[in-house]
Amino acid sequence: MSHPQNILFLCSGNSARSILAEALATTLSHGRLIGYSAGAKPTGAVHPMAIELIQSMGYPLEVLRSKSWDEFGCEGAPKMDYIITLCDSAVGEECPYWPGHPSTAHWGFPDPAAVRAGDEAMLHAFKQVEMGLRNRIELLMDLPMDKLDHLELKEQLDSIHQRIKLGE
Question: Parallel, antiparallel, or unpaired for β 103-106 and 82-85?
């Protein structure tokens, strides 16, 4: 790849899963990917456990914020190469227009912030989502992205999720 690829992770609330994915994509790829995140109905706050995990990655906390996906459909927004939904409700939402027709996929994860069995169980759920995202993003980085056409890339993005899901 000659230039960094932009990847947008979508979730309904943009407080946990998509925020984790943004930080992971950016930090794991060492500049090959630039992660972004947004939500259909942003909560307006980043979950404290997501902040805790992201801080340990060395990702700059000051750039984290819960935001609407509308920001990325506007003129002047970064052009996305990939858009990945992370929650089942976001995949069913009517999305804004994405300039450039990015490759899309759905990598569904349960919401770790919805765990109500105590802080320890919630932290475990957050770590499970982080590991699942980490595994998928590492596989994404192994793809010869500049050699795949749009359809092949979409198939590979979908395949990444299915391969790991079967192994979990």
Answer: parallel
The structure's pTM equals 0.90
Residue among 51, 57, 77, 95 flagged as catalytic: 95
Reported as a single tens digit per residue, the pLDDT across 60-113 is 999 999 999 989 888 888 999 999 999 876 555 566 667 777 888 899 998 998
Of 25, 84, 87, 91, which residue is the catalytic one? 87
Q: 52: Cβ–Cβ under 8 A, 6 or more apart, which residues?
A: none
* The CATH number of the domain covering residues in 5-167: 3.40.50.2300
How far apart CA 53 and CA 158 sit, in angstroms, is 26
Clarify whether 74 is annotated catalytic: no
DSSP E strands, 12-156: 33-39, 82-85, 103-106
Residue with tokens 């590492």: 138
Dihedral angle over CA of 20, 106, 141, 113, nearest 10: 10
Calpha distance 9→137 (Å, rounded): 11
Residue appearing with tokens 């947008």: 8
| Domains of the chain, residue spans | 5-167
Q: Which of 7, 8, 10, 11 is catalytic?
A: 11
